[in-house]
Every structure is written in C-alpha cells, then in structure tokens.
Design a protein that fits this description.
The protein is an alpha/beta fold. The chain is 47% helix and 20% strand. The protein has a 3-stranded parallel β-sheet with strand order 2-1-3.
Length: 81
C-alpha cells in the first residue's frame, strides 16, 4: 500500500532541494509514499490547503505560515474582526 502525499510549493525554490534529493534517491518510494508536487500561486492558498486538508505538506520559506498563525491568533483574540 502506498500513501499519496500532496505537497505544495509556490515555485522551484532552494527550500525544495531536500524534496528533489528524496525523489531522486527513492526515499519516498522506500517508505511507501507517493509524492505529488503541485505549484500553488501563493502562500495564502497553500496555507488554506493545509488547513482544509487538501495539501499534506508544504515546501517554502516559513514566513507565510508564521503570518498565518499570527493572523489566526489575532482573529481568535478578537472575534468578529
């Protein structure tokens, strides 16, 4: 049985280097994983996909995720804003 991973990234970036090495060396296959890399236009869309479960993993700089967490904290602290 293989497990499909939906992986999103905004572009071909240096942050994806470990992904490409893992694919090239067969690390995903060895673990029974099938990665599907998808290029997504923005960090906001990637974060939305992570929250709703459409995306399993994301590759990219941490800035977008950190801003998303801060935005969620602000909206939880001030409902209705």
């Amino acid at each position: 049985m293989t497990i499909r991973l939906r992986i999103a990234t905004p572009s071909r970036t240096l942050f994806a280097l470990p992904y490409w090495i893992a694919v090239h060396r067969g690390f995903f296959k060895d673990e029974g994983l099938t990665p599907d890399l998808e290029f997504v236009a923005s960090g906001d869309l990637i974060n939305e996909g992570l929250r709703n479960g459409r995306i399993t993993l994301a590759i990219g700089p941490p800035d977008g995720v950190m801003l998303d967490v801060l935005a969620c904290r602000r909206s939880a602290a001030h409902p209705g804003r």
